[in-house]
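re: ur question from earlier - yeah i can do the single chain one, its not a big deal. heres the input i used so u can compare w yours
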Amino acid sequence: MNTDKSVPVWIEDSTENSLTMVEKENISQVREYINKTMGKPIDSLFIVQVFKTPTSREKESDPLSPITKLNTLVNSYDDGTQSYIRLRVKIKTTIITYSPGGTPIPSEYFHLQNEGGNKFEGIRGNKLVVPRNKLVEEIFNTMLENPIVIIRSPPFTGKTSVGQLLEIYLNEKYKDQKPVSYVRRISFGWHNKGFHDLWTLYTGLSFRDWLKVSTKKHVYLIIDEAQAIYKSDDVEYHSQFWPFLKCLTTNIHILILASYGEKQGKAHTPFVLNDTKVLGSNFLFFNHEEFTQLLDFFSKQYFQIPKEIYNFLWTNSIGHVGIVNRSLHGIMEKFSPSGQIKSQVDFAKVFNYLMSGEYSQYLAESRGSPSYDVNFSQNQLKILDLVTENGYIKASHIGNPDLESLIKDGYLIMSEEQNSHFIFPSPLFRRCYLVKRYGKNWPSDEKIEKGLIGLKQLIFCAIKYFRPYVISSKFSARASLPNENVQSLESVWQMELYCAFSNILGPIIVPNAGGRNGSDGKIDFYVEPPYNWGIELLSEGKGTDEHLNRFKTTKTNTTSRSGQNATYIGIYVPLLDTMIKDWIIIDFSSEMLYQNNPPNIADPNLCIITYSTDFKTYKIHYQDGKVDQIIL
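and the output i got, formated as tokens:
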């Protein structure tokens, strides 16, 4: 027998619960391979196990000498087959942590990816990681009840991170029961070679072999970036993977994580397998407890985030994982670029950043952000404009190819509260779309002064840009809807004012994101330096005092035993004289409300604009009694 012959050897990494196949001659070569190629420091000698098949144990040896020839350990059988050799390696590092976490990505992977596929994949390299135990346990229980679970959502919604956290959870859960259960996580974005090589390289067995293993043992497979093999021209991946899934009857549990709506090279989910549980984007969003925990981690790691910012991000992100994480990263880069720890950053400075065009652009550049596409059909633009204006569209995507395409491309998702309502993935993405759709890159030649006088001048000039036929059609559409579907008229005026303001001042006009329900965000418009203006809207006189008090410090009478008056500080007061130099409340009201008496305005920061029934005549009223009339 030639004792120098190389033989196939399976290397078992006890910390990663993974198998890797190599061809080596002796133990010393295997040790060298692990040290150099896998980058793993060996803590103890090898113990060899010899199998007739990968899943059957035949014998176990004592620790082996480094000079042991591997082919001397191979057994030959009467049926002409030879045994498998598995080398169990104890690695120095044995602690599972949340960072970096997940299955190791081989070094060659870093050179294959242009975006997303790097050492910061998912929770890797991220100092701010929430365990999300309740969510992970819910996924695990769903996998026990369903052979296949698919989570489909747009990019930037936390799918990869959840897959990594689930892998950590399963490894920890079954750490004392190996090899009763096997856990493997793989991404179809890691490799650009054949289907068989992909599974063998990253999991130690082919996909077919894992199906065989699952006849006797529980196998949990977490498959990320599954949209990579939806393409019909990818014959090998498509034909070797999906047919297996359609006939699963073993102890295998598969979680498939798939994107749709990638900005570059959009990939769609073409079908849903039978006996499959499908979960959507809302399932992945942070709940309030997870959101608060993440921001608390940030405050401990970098600097204390004001509670008002907690509220703003929660209201405007609706727990969108990508939005929250990117916002925190943007805040960190803006106020602590070197990563140094600070005690606190002023609320006005942080809020100023979150209301800036710089922040909107930062969000728009993310993988998951919807962007204005000149190839949209007119029907698609109409749908997106309705969602931008109303906060949602109520419709069925079945038999509606334009809406279905927007859903597949990640521009819209189904509302968690109403299955028939479709919304932007986040209100902040609504702002991004609004800016892309109607914003202007350059200001007009109109010269607008600074101060409150200039702000009033801006309002006068903006009304000249109004489109009566557009406003009329929107009001008519609302009149034909049931009451429960009619949104506040403020959204109509916000859209029209933003178009007009942007035509005059260009990109320094920043609209409100719209809030969690389309109405609870902060400041309808912020005009960036050199103006530093805050503009709030209301309609038909509803909520005038509430809007005014947001900018004021007021005292109220109390019946408490102390006899002291309570002081109320409006939510925008901390922003005055820093972020906001001047502000105004604009009330759009029908002229029918004041046909007998003109408006009585008691506050210098209140402006009432009355409009005619045909939306062609507007009168602007201020405290001093001056009235400006504009006829379009």
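DSSP finds 19 helices and 22 strands in the chain. not sure if urs matches, ping me
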